[in-house]
Amino acid sequence: MGTHYQDQPPEHWAGDVSLDPTPVWKQYILVAVLVLLALVLIGVVSLAALMPQLATPPAVVPGGRVVLARSDLPAVGEMPRLVGPPLVGEADAFWLAQPVAGDVVAVRARWTSTPGAPQCRVMPLPPFTNPIWSFTGTCEAGAGVEGAPVWGPRGEPIAAPRALDRYLVSVDRDRVIVNVSREIRGYGATPQPRVPPLGSP
Predict the structure, then answer these.
(1) Looking at the DSSP assignment, which residues form a beta bridge with residue 100?
(2) What dihedral do alpha carbons 116, 61, 170, 189 form, nearest 10°?
(3) 32 CB-near residues (< 8 Å, 6+ apart)
């Protein structure tokens, strides 16, 4: 059997159709479909990002974002405001507060000393001598907390094993957006060193 195509029998030859490239119009259709899919995806993502601006407060939009009016934000030094049912479920309820101007916090209305422990109900604690409130907890039996835990206005532990859990908060013009799908786990109450590890006493 020879190595030149002339030596091959005609039935082994490739037909003329096999040498034709893919029609250009089919390539155009493929590119157009891919561009259309990309535009649809961009539109969906953009709409989801704009939902907090399009919704009328109070509302909950996809992604676990709670949209509140700026007027719902307590003034500096005012007692925190509870945001719960029917806007969000009891498990996602939170206290919205503004300890100092521009510092907005949203602490969860439920707290546990350790994962799986019985929950404590978090409530604002009116001020005693200073003009700022704090938080306290009413715990169920077996919660692993002696007495009533106490936290500062930002949820920092004062007389508690760890801080309150918080949610991400952003203030945008006339609205406050709280992302209840982004929980910030409270840190422990371990005393921090007064001097950096590499510093001199």
Answers:
(1) 103
(2) 0
(3) none
CA torsion through residues 180, 99, 69, 136, sign: positive
Q: Which residue's entry shows tokens 């704090």?
A: 134
DSSP lists the bridge partners of residue 171 as 176
Tens of pLDDT, residue by residue over 100-151, are 888 899 999 999 888 778 888 999 988 765 667 789 988 877 767 777 888 9
In angstroms, the Cα distances linking 35 to 24, 28, 48, 187 are 17, 11, 20, 46
Query: Which runs of consecutive H residues, i.e. helices, occur in the chain?
Result: 24-54
Tell me the whole-structure pTM to 2 decimals.
0.71
pLDDT tens, 29-75?
888 899 999 999 988 887 777 777 788 888 998 888 999 999 989 98
Quick check: 98 and 75 in contact, CB under 8 A?
A: yes
Judge contact between 175 and 60, C-beta under 8 A: no
Q: Which amino acid is at 80?
A: P
146 within 8 A of 161, measured Cβ to Cβ: no
State the sign of the Cα–Cα–Cα–Cα dihedral 7, 8, 14, 16.
Answer: positive
Compute the C-alpha angle 165/166/168, nearest 5°. 150
